[in-house]
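Re: that backbone. Tokens:
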């Protein structure tokens, strides 16, 4: 709208610099200012605007006026335009402010100051663009990371939900399986009880019939009648007495629930807790492998396997029993405990292990639910480890300094009359070893029997 008015030949323009209404005859295309004849001459004389393109109004309108000068007025002097830049205060002011509030400050025209600050502003614009690009890239990365996090969390959430749903289903199926086992055990036990009750009722009926018949026979029968029924009655009594005795039904521990035992679900890889068992551990039938406790050495780990068995002397096929073990030394009447560990193998066997610290006689107590198993406490004898009397060397040649008489129990031989072993020769174990027994382990027990004997003459 404003540009159309400026380009119209019917519009009468006034000089933008004169305070009086003087008609404009020319226009600076760069400053977008209309001049009268005098102001045009002054404008072209100034060094900062000497090379500006100043055209007559007709020429400017034919070329096309595309810029409009935007005037910003001073807040303190509303009639004056902001045209001076105070470098001291870094503030744009009017000419009146120069003499009033900025006296003595470094001031220059706004157009000249703008040119001097233009390079800084361009650099700032470039930096702003770089910051914009970097920020956009960072924001894009954050968005990408956010999407990845969202996707991963959704994936894990789905996995958790599926796992928990499947696990709950497995637990429910396990529960139904346990309840079905309980139902079967109940039916089996009650059926056996019903069978025993039927047997008892038959015996009661037979015994009652015999008793009533004998009472009547003895009270009313003649001697001939009594003698006639002796054999049949006695036979029936014998059959009644010889009937299979009623088995006593144990119910208090015939079925047990073991909540700490695990079982794998048949249709999945989930392991759930809780099993039912009808096996009761019999202390008198439990067995401890005492063979492994016959040759113990100080500082060497000893292990023994406890096998639990039920009342029918059948191996128990599950763990969960409260097995404890304790070893005590018997030294001059003073008893002191030794740390013993018990590992439940979950298959009815338990590994009992300990490390003897001194030689002597010991007692191994093995308890299940606080009660000794058969044979407990078990006597154990610990002996000191047999020390090495030789040299832990690489070969006889090196350890003896080349002595031909030096021998070694590894079995290696060197040619040239040497009695011991040597590197790379026949029989050498290929590593450092003990000369007394040939053992390649430095911290080991000597396996060589003592060949020294003492005679008394």
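Recovered sequence:
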């Amino acid at each position: 709208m404003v540009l159309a008015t400026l380009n119209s030949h019917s519009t009468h323009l006034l000089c933008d610099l004169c305070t009086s209404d003087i008609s404009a005859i020319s226009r600076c295309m760069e400053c977008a200012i209309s001049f009268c004849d005098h102001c045009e001459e002054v404008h072209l004389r100034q060094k900062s605007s000497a090379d500006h393109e100043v055209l007559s109004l007709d020429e400017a309108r034919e070329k096309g006026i595309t810029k409009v000068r935007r005037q910003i007025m001073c807040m303190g002097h509303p009639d004056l335009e902001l045209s001076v830049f105070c470098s001291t205060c870094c503030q744009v002011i009017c000419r009146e402010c120069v003499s009033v509030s900025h006296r003595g400050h470094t001031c220059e025209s706004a157009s000249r100051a703008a040119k001097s600050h233009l390079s800084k502003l361009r650099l700032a614009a470039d930096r702003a663009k770089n910051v914009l690009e970097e920020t956009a890239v960072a924001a894009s990365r954050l968005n990408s990371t956010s999407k990845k996090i969202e996707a991963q969390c959704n994936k894990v959430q789905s996995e958790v939900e599926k796992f928990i749903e499947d696990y709950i289903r497995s637990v429910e199926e396990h529960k139904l399986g346990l309840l079905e086992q309980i139902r079967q055990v109940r039916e089996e036990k009650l059926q056996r009880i019903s069978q025993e009750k039927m047997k008892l009722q038959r015996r009661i009926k037979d015994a009652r019939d015999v008793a009533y018949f004998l009472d009547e026979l003895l009270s009313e029968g003649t001697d001939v009648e009594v003698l006639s029924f002796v054999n049949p009655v006695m036979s029936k009594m014998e059959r009644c007495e010889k009937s299979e005795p009623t088995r006593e039904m144990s119910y208090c521990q015939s079925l047990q629930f073991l909540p700490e035992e695990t079982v794998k679900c048949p249709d999945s890889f989930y392991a759930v807790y809780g099993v039912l068992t009808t096996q009761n551990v019999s202390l008198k039938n439990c067995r401890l492998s005492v063979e492994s406790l016959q040759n113990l050495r100080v500082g060497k780990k000893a292990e023994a396997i406890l096998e639990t068995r039920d009342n029918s002397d059948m191996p128990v096929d599950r763990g969960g029993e409260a097995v404890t073990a304790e070893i005590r030394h018997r030294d001059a009447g003073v008893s002191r405990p030794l740390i013993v560990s018990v590992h439940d193998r979950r298959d009815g066997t338990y590994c009992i292990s300990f490390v003897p610290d001194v030689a002597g006689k010991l007692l191994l107590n093995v308890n299940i639910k606080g009660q000794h198993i058969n044979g407990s406490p078990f006597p154990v004898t610990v002996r000191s480890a047999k020390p090495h009397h030789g040299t832990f060397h690489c070969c006889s040649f090196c350890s003896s300094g080349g002595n031909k008489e030096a021998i070694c129990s590894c079995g290696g031989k060197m040619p040239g009359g040497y009695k011991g072993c040597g590197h790379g020769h026949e029989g050498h174990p290929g590593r450092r070893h003990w000369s007394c027994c040939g053992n390649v382990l430095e911290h080991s027990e000597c396996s060589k029997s003592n060949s020294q004997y003492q005679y008394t003459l």
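Residues 287-383 form a domain with the Immunoglobulin-like fold (CATH 2.60.40.10). The longest helix spans residues 110-220.
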